[in-house]
């Protein structure tokens, strides 16, 4: 299949994932409301919020980077999506996966944050600056155990291609990285909590402390782009983790179920544990998950 | 742009309340460059508000109005004793999230401002600034008798009596204090008004801008800010 014939399928996949991401966000809010003994907002509320934000009649901007910040953030989310195989073995939904896509995806995870940092910085609100410095500091700490886990997988299967990593995990549940290298999975899942920004590690948006952090100055359409990206990014990250540790998916049903479970791991941890302070969360990542990451490499090298 | 700024901020008279950090000054940058700073012109955009007309297609506009009504983001800004009645709305007992009502931390992102109870002159200045930073379409709700006619603060020396002299109000909720149930009823009333296309407070404010400004300046003595704060 040529590159140009692939484009409609890539766009279809993007459309499905954005809507699935919004649906999961709605269910997320609904479940966390039920845990707090509330009924919660309707499941379709994220769509209404998006329509409302896109339909705002006026908006305020603070300069060119302010415009580009949300665009870069969305570019980061779409970038991860573009180079990641969704359905293993499907000609139509393997996107633009290639031999070294894992490295590029890890770059895109940081790219969006940096773009957002420039944009939010131009907004000039003190909370933006605080949120950004917290976010970049914490993400650096998160990336260490995550990188060790990914290096362990790369050593294990001798490849940096997500498609080949998924292919190596086919053939039964015992072939998943979850069982062949439990240390890498543990380190990866702990860094997933931070990458999702759910409760114990939501130091960036930190409600009641620096209300909503970096996007504080973004209004109307800018915020709508950020919201669209949040819906896409979170579900795409869940699919990435699913591909890395839980054997990928061979059809859409499997993809929905597996990514839902990975996504809700973050929710259930978040509803049990209160928020860390930023220094606590960084220190925590440099202890247990980092040691697990090193163990993952040693495990695959010597056992 | 600088012409507009000068036009709008030249009306600010220096008085005894003029904050020293708002004075014009020259600053030497770390690289030796000398920069002139005029905070009132540099930090604010002095443009007057514009009228943003609704979409021409009525069916499309009513769909957008439906979305606006079903997704009301309330600015977390308690002005008086009534704000204590706002917080129970987020608890399991009343749970306003069911109706698409959420709290928003910043005026840039919120669409509804609740003036909860008495409004002192000092707070009015902050309310005006926050209201003008919100994006069109935006709504105002007056909570409690104090916003209607002054209530028990009718003859107080430092509170305002009628809110709609200063801001375009969409809904009033009478009572002293109204209970959260009354607030929920008020939200439903507001939603109905928005769906009927009557939530055009921001345009009303832009159309009658000079009248509102005159009223505000009549009562706020230490103005010290541009006429319109973006």
| Low-pLDDT residue intervals, each spanning 5 or more residues of chain A | none
How many helices of chain A? 12
Backbone CA Rg of chain B: 20 Å
Oligomeric state, counting identical vs distinct chains: heterodimer
Largest sheet of chain A: none
Report the CATH architecture of the largest domain in chain B.
3-Layer(aba) Sandwich
Number of domains of chain A: 1
Describe the structure in your own words.
- The complex is a heterodimer of chains A (303) and B (230).
- Helices cover 70% and strands 0% of the residues of chain A.
- With 303 residues, chain A is an all-alpha fold.
- Chain A has one domain.
- In chain A, α9 crosses α10.
- Chain A is globular.
- Chain A starts with a helix and ends with a helix.
- Chain B has 230 residues and is an alpha/beta fold.
- Chain B folds into 2 domains: 41 residues, no CATH class; 162 residues, 3-Layer(aba) Sandwich (Rossmann fold).
- The N terminus of chain B is likely disordered.
Blueprint of the fold:
The complex is a heterodimer of chains A (303) and B (230).
Chain A: H1 3-35, H2 45-54, H3 64-82, H4 101-123, H5 126-157, H6 162-168, H7 177-180, H8 182-196, H9 220-245, H10 252-272, H11 278-285, H12 288-302
Helix pairs in contact in A: 1-9, 1-10, 2-9, 3-4, 3-9, 4-5, 5-8, 5-11, 5-12, 8-9, 8-12, 9-10
Chain B: H1 2-9, E1 25-28, E2 34-37, H2 39-42, H3 58-70, E3 72-75, E4 101-104, E5 112-116, H4 121-133, E6 139-143, H5 146-149, E7 171-173, H6 180-195, H7 201-207, H8 209-219
Parallel strand pairs in B: 3-4, 5-6, 6-7
Antiparallel strand pairs in B: 1-2
Helix pairs in contact in B: 3-6
List key phrases describing it.
heterodimer, A: 303 residues, mainly alpha, B: 230 residues, alpha/beta, Rossmann fold, 3-stranded parallel β-sheet, two-stranded antiparallel ribbon, disordered N terminus
Describe the structure concisely:
The complex is a heterodimer of chains A (about 300) and B (about 230). With about 300 residues, chain A is mostly helical.
């Amino acid at each position: 299949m040529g590159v140009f014939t692939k484009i409609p399928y890539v766009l279809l996949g993007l459309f499905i994932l954005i809507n699935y991401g919004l649906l999961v966000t709605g269910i997320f809010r609904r479940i966390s409301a039920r845990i707090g003994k509330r009924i919660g907002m309707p499941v379709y509320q994220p769509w209404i919020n998006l329509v409302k934000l896109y339909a705002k009649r006026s908006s305020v901007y603070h300069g060119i980077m302010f415009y580009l910040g949300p665009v870069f953030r969305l570019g980061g989310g779409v970038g991860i999506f573009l180079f990641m195989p969704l359905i293993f073995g499907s000609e139509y939904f393997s996107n633009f996966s290639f031999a070294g896509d894992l490295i590029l995806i890890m770059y895109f995870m940081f790219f969006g944050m940096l773009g957002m940092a420039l944009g939010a910085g131009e907004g000039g609100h003190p909370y933006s600056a605080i949120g950004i410095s917290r976010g970049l500091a914490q993400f650096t700490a998160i990336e260490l155990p995550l990188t060790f886990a990914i290096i362990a997988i790369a050593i294990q299967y001798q490849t940096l291609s997500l498609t080949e990593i998924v292919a190596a995990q086919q053939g039964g549940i015992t072939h998943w990285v979850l069982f062949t290298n439990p240390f890498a999975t543990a380190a990866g899942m702990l860094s997933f909590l931070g990458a999702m920004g759910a409760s114990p590690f939501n130091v960036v948006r930190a409600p009641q402390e620096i209300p909503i952090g970096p996007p504080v100055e973004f209004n109307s359409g800018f915020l709508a782009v950020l919201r669209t990206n949040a819906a896409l990014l979170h579900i795409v990250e869940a699919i990435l983790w699913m591909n890395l540790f839980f054997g990928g998916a061979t059809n859409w049903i499997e993809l929905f179920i597996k990514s839902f479970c990975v996504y809700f791991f973050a929710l259930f941890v978040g509803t049990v544990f209160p928020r860390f302070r930023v220094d606590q969360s960084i220190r925590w990542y440099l202890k247990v998950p980092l040691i697990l990451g090193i163990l993952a490499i040693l495990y695959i090298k010597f056992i | 742009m600088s012409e507009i700024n000068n036009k709008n901020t030249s009306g600010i008279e220096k008085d005894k309340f003029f904050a020293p950090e708002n004075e014009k000054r020259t600053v030497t940058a770390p690289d030796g460059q000398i920069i002139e700073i005029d905070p009132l012109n540099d930090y604010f955009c002095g443009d007057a508000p514009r009228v943003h007309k609704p979409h021409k297609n009525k069916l499309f506009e009513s769909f957008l109005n439906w979305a606006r009504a079903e997704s009301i983001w309330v600015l977390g800004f308690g002005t008086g004793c009534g704000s204590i009645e706002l917080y129970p709305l987020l608890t399991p007992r009343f749970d306003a999230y069911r109706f698409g009502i959420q709290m928003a931390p910043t005026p840039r992102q919120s669409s509804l401002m609740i003036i909860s109870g008495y409004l002192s002159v000092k707070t009015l200045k902050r309310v005006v600034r926050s209201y003008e930073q919100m994006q069109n379409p935006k709504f105002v709700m007056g909570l409690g008798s104090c916003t209607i006619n002054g209530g028990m603060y009718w003859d107080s020396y430092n509170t305002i009596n009628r809110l709609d002299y200063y801001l375009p109000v969409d809904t009033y909720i009478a009572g002293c204090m109204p209970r959260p149930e009354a607030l929920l009823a008020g939200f439903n009333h507001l939603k109905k008004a928005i769906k009927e296309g009557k939530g055009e407070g921001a345009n009303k404010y832009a159309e009658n801008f000079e009248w509102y400004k005159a009223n505000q300046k009549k009562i706020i003595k230490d103005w010290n800010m541009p006429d319109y704060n973006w």
